[in-house]
Amino acid sequence: MKIFFLAILLSLLSLSLGGQEAQAEKFSAEDHPWDDGTAVLLKWDLGGQRDSLSLQKADSLGVYQEFYNEFDLSLQSNEFAVVGQYKDSSLSPDTAYKYRLVAYSRDRADSVSFLAETVTRQQWFAMEKLSMLILLTLICAAILYYIFSARRGKELFIRRIGGLDSMDEAVGRATEKGKPILFVPGISDLGDIQTIAALNILNHLAVKSAEYGAELLVPCRFSMVLSAARETVKEAFMKAGRPDAYREENIFYVTDDQFGFVAGVDGIMLREQPAANFFLGAFWAESLILTETGFGTGAIQTAGTGQPHQIPFFVVSCDYTLIGEELYAASAYLSRDPQQLGSLKGHDFGKLMVIVLVLVGIVMEIAGWGWFKEFLAGGNG
Amino acid sequence: MKKNVPLILAFISGMLILVAGFIPHYPFAMLEETLTNWFMIISSFAILLGQSSLIQANVTRVARRSPNWQYHLAGLISFGLMVAFGLLWGMEHTPGIFGHGEAVVRNLGIKPFDYVFEYAYMPLSATMFALLAFYIASAAYRAFIIRSFESNLLMITAVIVMLGRTSFATLLTSWIPQSWSFLRLPEITDFIMQYPNTAAQRAILISASLGIVGASLRIILGIERSYLGGGK
User: Is pLDDT of B168 > 70?
Assistant: First the structure.
């Protein structure tokens, strides 16, 4: 009987020792996957026996310098707890790095250190963007398909966009009243796609203005936009066969300052009393100041921006508002060019795809299959 | 030729940036930054164009004694003064032609450029921004006038959200038992902001993103060329 109990005791002891082995402390350094070779991923498992840790990196002389520490691991979130990881960023690619982790135990008043090293490597593909690449490829393929369909003469139905259909009305009204048209291409620089979209619309508006003989005012916030806007309007007037009507001084620079620009444009609205105002492009806090002033002057107002937070302001104070993709679709819509209209059908395919993905995502999450969301979120989900 | 060169440049730059977005390896990783730096350099030269446009437009109006020419004169004087102050005494840490202008700084407390910036420009800028408060009130008044089912819905939602953001809402609905706490105004406000509002905003964002993809593709492929002035 005693031997039996002794055997049970020994087996329990061995199990206990085995358990301690499973909690062995580990520290590793590995090149951050699928990146430009500027980050190292440090991982550790201190087995729940440590109170604080210090992460150190060897400098060019081989001396370890602390760059991160945690004093109370029990209070920290998972990322910096006894089992955790740290991403050391802003490193040089294709370079060897040595790391040391020093972990301290308050109860036992001892510390232990681990060494790890790795070499940062540049990768040829950012794997976390795979889902984005697939979606982008599908959308681009759909857009191209519809463009080629339109080129082959296929009839495409495009829904009407009120804000753009009203452009003729606005220009006509300005001509009748003998008042100018004001076009503000947003307050962002030429590097913003919203500004490019606005300039595309300006081209169509300038053609109409030239045809009707209406004066077109274009205040610009940035010199680059000024230069592009002048070129756009000039070419549009030439296209309309009215190069003599082009007035370079009507497309002018105001100021780089946000509220200085607003003050300038508000002043123009109050002094010149334009019959039609167009606010198309990127707008931020100044959107309502501009459009409310325009509303006060009684002008027909059309606005459009890609900034979701400014859309309610435009909806409230303007006669027509281009929401979401309408700003980007405007030029294609106005041109009535079958190829460009074809690309708008591609947008609709994209919308359909997003709706399907959202529905599939909901089902997947309910079913507990998180990989789908993680894949779409690029591993950050 | 005049049209083809920009189109080719747009195609090459667009494709490079697109490809670079997915390849973190050298030299693709640094392409975006390099092209952005080029843009900054070109922009800094273009500033001269802006300044010349500003001076030209204002001088012409003042010379012709156009209506309200006084405002243009004020603009020109302000512009000239700031340039002169900056050139003569510099800004906060940078010296001007007369160095740091210790004598002037003794009288004004700070350099003339910083003085005008701090005590003229900043209050004027803040004043313009402050107008927003009044315009929000007038715009909200128009938006909340009950004309249709939608405007009615908008008004009710707005009242709940505005009230829910104040301590008065807590006071007003704190008597509701814990088990029915979702009926308390702050809770309803949080729900509206977190779900219907976020959903609508994301829908607009997704739609705008699709628009960006389409517009970018049209520009890269040269189908859209209105920004170059004119059609095909």
Answer: yes
Measured distance CA(A147)–CA(A172) in Å, rounded: 32
Tokens describing residue A174: 């300005």
Beta carbons of B25 and A139 less than 8 Å apart: no
Tell me how close the Cα of B156 comes to any Cα of chain A, in angstroms: 16
What is each CA distance from B182 to A229, B104, B147, B173, B197, in whole angstroms?
A: 53, 63, 30, 10, 17
What phi, psi does B69 have (nearest 5°)?
-65, -20
Beta pairing partners, A30: A41
Among B97, B129, B95, residue whose Cα is nearest residue B114: B95
Cβ neighbours of residue A303 closer than 8 Å, sequence gap 6 or more: A278, A279, A280, A283, A287, A291, A314, A318, A320, A321, A322
Q: What is the pLDDT of residues A265-274, one digit of tens each?
A: 999 999 999 9
Neighbouring residues of A155: CB distance < 8 A, sequence distance ≥ 6:
none
Q: DSSP label at B197?
A: I
Q: Which of B25, B43, B138 sits opposite A292 (nearest CB)?
A: B138
Regions of chain A short of the pLDDT cut 50: 12-22, 78-79, 381
Contact A253 B54 (CB under 8 A): yes
Which helix (H) or strand (E) segment holds residue A304: the answer is: strand A300-305
Q: How far is B11 from chain A (nearest CA, A)?
A: 15
Which residues have a Cβ under 8 Å from the Cβ of A201 and sit 6 or more positions away? A278, A280, A327, A330, A331, A334, B226
Whether residue A34 and residue B51 make contact (CB cut-off 8 A), yes or no, is no
Answer for the pair A257, A284: CB distance below 8 angstroms, yes or no.
no
| CB contact (8 A) between residue B22 and residue A133 | yes
- The pLDDT value recorded for residue A25 is 79
Per-residue pLDDT band for B167 (boundaries 50, 70, 90) equals very high
B215 and A124 in contact by Cβ < 8 A?
A: no
Spatial contact of A220 and A185, defined as CB atoms under 8 Å apart: yes
Name the residue among B50, B56, B139 with its Cβ closest to that of A288: B139
Q: What is the model's pLDDT at position B99?
A: 92
Measured in angstroms, the CA of B72 and the nearest CA of chain A are apart by 11
Name the residue in chain A with its Cα closest to that of B200: A308
Span B93-147, pLDDT tens digits:
899 999 998 999 999 899 999 999 999 999 999 999 999 999 999 988 888 887 7
Asked if A223 contacts B46 with a C-beta cutoff of 8 angstroms, the reply is yes
CB spacing of B24 vs A122 below 8 angstroms: yes
pLDDT of residue B60: 92
The position carrying tokens 């509002």 is B197
Q: How many angstroms separate the Cα of A38 from the Cα of each of A89, A93, A280, B37?
A: 6, 5, 40, 21
- Of the candidates A217, A186, A218, which has an alpha carbon nearest to the alpha carbon of residue A286? A186
Q: Do B215 and A197 touch (CB under 8 A)?
A: yes
- Using the beta-carbon criterion (under 8 Å), do B214 and A324 form an inter-chain contact? no
- Strand order across the beta sheet in which A64-70 lies: A64-70, A52-58, A96-105, A110-119
Bigger pLDDT: B70 or B4? B70
* C-alpha closest to that of A287 among A217, A186, A173, A170: A186
Contacts of A329 in chain B (CB under 8 A): 211, 214-215
List CB contacts (< 8 A) between A260 and chain B.
Answer: 124-125, 128
Q: Roughly what angle, to the nearest 10 degrees, separates helices A223-239 and B28-63? A: 70
